[in-house]
Amino acid sequence: MVLPASDFVGHRSAPSLEEVAATRPFDRPTLVLDTQIVARNFHALKAGLGSALIHYAVKANPAPEVISRLVAEGCGFDAASRGEIELCLSQGARPDHISFGNTIKRESDIAFAHMAGITLFAADAEEELEKIARAAPGARVYIRVIVEPNGADWPLTRKFGCAPDRVRRLLSMATDLGLQPVGLSFHVGSQTRFAEMWKGTLQQVAGIWHEARAAGHDLGLLNIGGGFPAFYGEAMDGLSDYAARVMELVRSAFGDAPQIMAEPGRGMVADAGMIAAEVLLVSRKSDTDLHRWVYLDIGRFSGLAETEGEAIRYQLQTWRDGEDTGPCILAGPSCDSVDVLYERRPVQLPLGLCAGDRVVIRNCGAYTSTYSSVGFNGFPPLDLMVL
After folding, report:
1. DSSP code of 274?
2. Hey, do 2-31+271-386 and 35-269 end up sharing a CATH topology, with the first three levels equal?
3. Mean per-residue pLDDT over the chain, rounded
4. Which of 69, 134, 251, 323 is the one with CA 20 to 30 A from 286?
5. DSSP state letters, 49-85
6. For 7-47, what is each residue's pLDDT tens digit?
């Protein structure tokens, strides 16, 4: 459900994202999103990435307002499903600005994408190439490669990609099937906070790239994926400087030959959103308990799935900020024992916090509205308000 924001749209004197999230009345957890910040982040990345093609990872936040704003700014799109492709097309994206970047696709969806005019597909297995050849004959494909972990907050090294020693075999197979193998892709890991962390990964992929070209494969596209970070309380490089340094490292490892493609998601939308939440209960389990338990009306099943393993540490603010604080275990409202957000590293919250208080969860425009369940335990899914 998208809440109306007509009072705020188009007025530069309108309340800020932070003001709306902190003060507007909401009867359920609501993600407040500012597409002007999304556009600002796109241009910051573009300034650093230079000639690279930017394909926004739609899965990070597929709000139609985000997609239409990025279409207007000239951005491309990385789609993971037929639904995301249909969304991008409905908002005016050109088919040649969309890539079908999921390596696990239904054959009928490949055929749909092909009929819609999309020509660029990802693969990491023989069977996927066979599906693409049948459903999208003559399509351009790039092979996703598994890379070693580099210290990213959220490594992506197991589910997607093929082992390096399979790359040339897949490239040859693609050619034999009548496809056009145009390049390679990888993902350095979500929330790779410093550009220097890319160096080892790029060296790994560069070795594979140069071997493939030496074997006669005319590769020209290098998809460096995502990994562009957002601020969650720990130090990180600014977007433009970060992107520029990544491009320096890419050129050092690959030279000037490849066309670079990037798929930022989190770095584009995270700081464009804040969640307005409410405290439901503050309690202690015993008289000797050192930590309070603070229960919010939002939890892991209603948008905060990335607190799994406490990997993403969202920043919180309340109207009581400035008062004395104490450590808290933060949890969601559902009747599931795993719906605990932060326990290993308790959060510091005001001692006066009580039921009914507003809590604003900052920098959560990415991977929240799409991770929200349809209504587990009868709690409503996360609402969305776009400024």
Report:
1. E
2. no
3. 92
4. 323
5. HTTPEEEEEGGG---HHHHHHHHHHT-EEEE-SHHHH
6. 434 444 578 999 999 999 999 999 999 999 999 999 999 99
